[in-house]
Amino acid sequence: MTPHWRKAFDAIERPLAAGTEAWIQSETFMDLATHSIRIQRRMLHDVQGATERWLHLWGWVSRGDVMRLSNQVASLERQVRDLRREAEQRDRPLLNGHQPRTRPRRSTTRRQS
Amino acid sequence: MAPGLIERQILRTRNGLAYLAGANRPDMAQTPRDLVWKRDKARLWRYRSSAQRRFRPPVLIVHSLVSKSYILDLLPGTSMIGYLTGEGFDVFLLDWVPPDPADAENTLETYVDEYIPAAIGAVLEEADADEVTLIGYCFGGVLALLEVAAHPELPIRNLMVMATPCDYREMGFMSNMFRAHRLGPDDVIDETGLVPANALDEGFQSLKPTEYVTQRVNFFQNLWNDEFVEGFLAIAFWARDQVSFPGGVFRQTVERLIRQNALLGGVIPHGRGEVRLEDIRCPFLNAYAAQDTITPAASSEPLTRLVGSDDVSELRLESGHIGFVAGRQAAKVARPQIRDWLATHSDDG
User: Fold this and answer.
1) I want to staple B174 with a disulfide (CB 3.0 to 4.6 A). Which of B85, B203, B288, B291 is the partner?
2) pTM here?
């Protein structure tokens, strides 16, 4: 049997959930969310930039430095992967190097949404 | 017999204290398995089974890129993978280690033209088989669809997708934000080139903003029930345990799948050409859930009519996104029907 407190919760939650979901899909909310995401991102970027400059003044390593280094290592790893892939396809073209049978791209699709 | 009021309060107090102390984290992903192949962040696992592997071909599950794969092997007794191995299927899982900056430029083609074909080759070798049955869960279903459409030369006997998005107009708030060009991929991709896990988590939570509170209330109401608590904690832990998403795939997802809604059109740009869902000719099962808030049924439904196979089936489950793999619906309805479909489309013995 459903307890009374749960019935009361459901009586409030259901219309609230329906209202919130409708509000989230509204133009107003989407505008607010867009601005909020972009402002948050810009503020984070500015704060990180200021912190980085301050740390560099003292000759310390910043998060940005570590990130750049990490991205450089990642780039090297990608190059190694590409080389390995090329070597594998040359050695074993039929085992792991299946080429997709894609069709040439058309200007329009046949099935429209 | 259900416990009385006082006994429930005692159990609720005990479980509540254990929860607060973090002492009742369930043991997940317990089905024994062996790593049989790996490349970069791709891992191919073969599950051990005490039952005889009576069905052929082997089953290869391609997991999603946006979540962790232990949802398919959540708890002993409710594990989808455990169930299938117990029923006599030879189950392989293609899983992805969470990406790092080296994977940031991975594209759909990286998975569809490189990792998955190579993994299929490894399955054939490992299981000494000529064909595989391919299963895709969630975004893994998108990869599986593209795989079969782009690579008709691969020996894929059957294709099954679970909770797989197709019509991205139905995918809710975040999808709408990108579709309307309010946000671009670079608004969420960070300096490592990945979409951070917390951005995906927030995106999923925004689909049902009050659900977090409702789930906590359900938890409190059933706190006396050990079985419920174990299942709830496992699912809640998994739901928050998101992984980063490669920026390259994300850009393509936004452009091709969300803005062009290419899956619904049946023609998806791929590499230098395009692939067509009508080129999927093998037996096909589209399984989706009516109360799924992450991949709504309205998004998955169209796949059934878009593939070109003559043998198309549909399984509509009255549950949520994880209703295929965990919970009572999974045990009573989803798994037996999935098993029957797989058995019908496999060789026995």
Assistant:
1) B203
2) 0.89
